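Colleagues,

Please find the record for the two-part complex below.
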Amino acid sequence: MTETRNEDVYVLADDSREAVFIAEGITKVYHMGEVDVHALRGVDLTLYKGEFVVLLGPSGSGKSTLLNILGGLDVPTAGSVRYRDHDLTEATESELTEYRRHHVGFIFQFYNLIPSLTARENVALVTEIALDPMAPEDALKLVDLGDRMDHFPSQLSGGQQQRVAVARAVAKRPEVLLCDEPTGALDITTGVKVLEAIERVNRELGTTTAVITHNAAIAAMADRVIHIADGRIARIDHNTQKKKPTELEW
Amino acid sequence: MRAINRKLLRDLWHMKGQALAIVMIIASGVALFVTQLATLDSLTFTRDSYYAEKRFADVFANCKRAPAPALQRIRELPGVDVVQSRVIVEVMLDVPGLQEPAKGRLLSVPDGRRPALNDLFLRDGRMPDPQAQGEVVVIEMFAKANNYHLNDTITAVINGRHQRLTIVGIGLSPEYVYSIAPGEMIPDDRRYAVLWMNERELAAAYNMEGAFNDVALTLAPHASEGEVIARVDDVLRPYGGLGAYARKEQVSHWFLQNELTQLETFGVFIPLIFIGVAAFLLNVVLNRVIATQRDQIAALKAFGYSNLQVALHFSQMVAGIVLVGALVGTAVGYWLGVMMIDLYTAYYHFPVLTFRLAGWVPVAGLLITAAASFGGTLNAVRRAAALPPAEAMRPEAPPTFRATTIERLGLQRLLAQPSRMILRNLERRPMKAGLSVLGMSMAVAMLVMGTAFMDIIYYVIDMQSNVIHREHVQVSFHEPRSMRSLHELERLPGVTYAEPFRSVPARVRFGHRSRRIGINGVPADTRLDRVLNMELEPFELPKDGILLSRVLGEKLGISAGDQLTVEVLEGSRPVRQVKVAALIDDFMGIAAYMEIRALNRLMREGDVISGANLLTDGRHDRELYDALRERPLVAGVVSKDAIIGNLKRMIEENLAITIGINVLFAAIIAFGVIYNSARVSLSERARELASLRVLGLTRGEISYILLGELAILTLVSLPIGFLLGNWLIDAVMLTLNSEVMRFPRVVSGTTYALAAASVIVAATVSGLIVRERLDRLDLVEVLKSRE
């Protein structure tokens, strides 16, 4: 297990892999009413094709902000972010929309399903605007929900809802899958099922996957674990031996 | 169907209560718009084709007796196209079952030919046979009202002789679409007839062979109406010409035109209020939908839906409501329009009058509604589109609250926590509270206006019949008579008091503007035909000078103190100057009053009168009417009870329905606004209220917090609504007031009470519906879900 504080050193150590994201010196300041909140204070980070990364940190550490910036939902106050040949910091609103539409799959802590649409329709919502999507039914089978396709979110358990969200995120065959506390609202059994689905997508489709969590146990299934505290990268761990979701305990 | 569109439909279904309320308001507005404007269009279309087909004249003129060569001179005037001369006389008719004599107007038709202008439409029968005697065509309304059929006979007093006329035809004429006796306002089909007779026979009865006393003509293309009128006047002046006038002053056309103008202004103004309220509600509801769907909007954007697609999605929600509202409104409007046209057929008579819905009417209604609705929701849609997805993902920051003014004044000890919550909530979003109050006030105002129409109309009837016109019977003579005739009338059976009047037809002129009117001369201390000032006290008639209806003064651009030119249209046709003493605020028609002796002096004639207003003891009416019938000098007798009866009948048949519809639609607005306010408050505060329940507050206590706010808003909106209602009445009156009718603003206490009660009922029902939802609040679910 290597341990380093500087990502550049790691890049030098292994530059055979293709970089998907390169973030340099990103900071983010929110103006919340009368106070300024420094969510990120100069983060440098590179993510590689096909890897499974866990961003670990306590709540308020800035990990969600980092994920939102990588996903083109937000722009940094300073610094630069590149996704392959796209400069996300200089992108216009419509370029960011295009980027999200064709390259990114999102999974949120509270699922963010459209309550008025069934599982199948929630997935179709995305496949209808994607370039080369899989059938919504196939996406749902991938997360083991082939028998719940016509259920509305209110008829599904939390774990099932989050698996619909996974199916919705992967149905467009995105290059990156960004998951914000995907098991945050779930118990261990259902959480494991969701993680299995995410892991399967990463493994079978080779999707670069970043998972945000404050649950240290989940870190064991990642290639790399990026520890974030107080808006900075505290350290990066590299797992030589990844665990399967079923082997996790929390 | 695309998933995003499914979401749209299901969201609409989910908010169906609120959507339905807005749909109903839009439908009300569009229905009124469609009804009024399609009725306007139907009437205009029917009128224009009727006028064209029956060759309705452009210019009309009467005289005492003009010889045939005068007609030839008129025909040769530049700008004149077709000319038709006639003999027209006013007669009295005996109608079975009627005590007083009915009035009739006999018009000549060319022997054996159809008139070149103002041709008849024959509903039944034929034109009079040129060889036969005593054959007439009667106007359809009179025949129907008195149950006359072909070959029935009517007795007419023609030049003092009773004569039996045989009905050979029943017809209509473009000159009598709105058919009233001279000087009256409301048709009385039982007591007023128009009859057509062969020229030879009618002329013989009145010593008019080879002469005429009426001429109608059409203008050649590009002819100047004013010049032709002046030239016709010149030709007829030596023959007792009463002044030529254009179609726009022709009685039937003038009434119809006034009605059409009213339809047009009313048909646009009132629907705009409804559509404005609907746009406001759409804005409130859409803002709320967008607030509750923050996370969904964020998700859509995260998956790559563009801002435009999000904006389009919410605009479609508005479009759906607008479209359904406009469709329902058009259907209801069509149905009401058919009803409305039916009402019109009772007063305006065309060969065929059917409702037609021109395509542009619903399209215009839809476009106006869509423009207002999209305009009203533009901001909300823009906010949804501009919502940054990362921010939408986070729950909204707690809103900033502060102590209210009342609390800062140190009165907080008087208020328990729930009451403080109500006040702080109102104070935190004064704009929202203000808009809710405005919406409810609008509903109150519409209710006040709708009901006040009844107050106003009964007030006008009461004024006309009990305060202004207090006579029982009005008698008019063919020719001006001496004062002796008045004393004769005083001695007739049952007459307790007789007051003379002098009526002089004249064209009044100020600057380049002029109008044909009748100048009314009454005694200075008149008791029966009174002129009232604004305080409804009798107006002392000045020794000199003339009083004009304010509407006439405004038309002429004249004010008190100015010199008015009076061109008298009878006798030697003198032209005089008379000072305008004052403009008077009267209710009906355009009038001019002078003291009777001042009028006689102006005419340079002795003490002559045109007729008299009578008070009777009511026990000898039959003898009185019989006696009047026997006098050849009497041209007509009018019973005031009959006039008031007609007025009331017209109102009950016609206006009551219109007013009923307005009140119903106003109630829809009231319920729609209040129900939506309550539902939006509930949705905004469900989480907060559930938390309070978890903390141990009872259902009653949380209901108080939510419904207390609604109650305060409702109570505040009542007085504002009353005020707004008064403004609204004034505004509508501005559009409704015409030369035919002017309406004062009269609002009874009952009307205010009724409006307040309706709104309070609407608020209570809305409150109960919301209360029922509050009782079913799922505490666990509400707390679990993230707002």
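Chain B touches chain A through 28 residues (CB under 8 Å).

Comments are welcome before we finalize the supplementary table.
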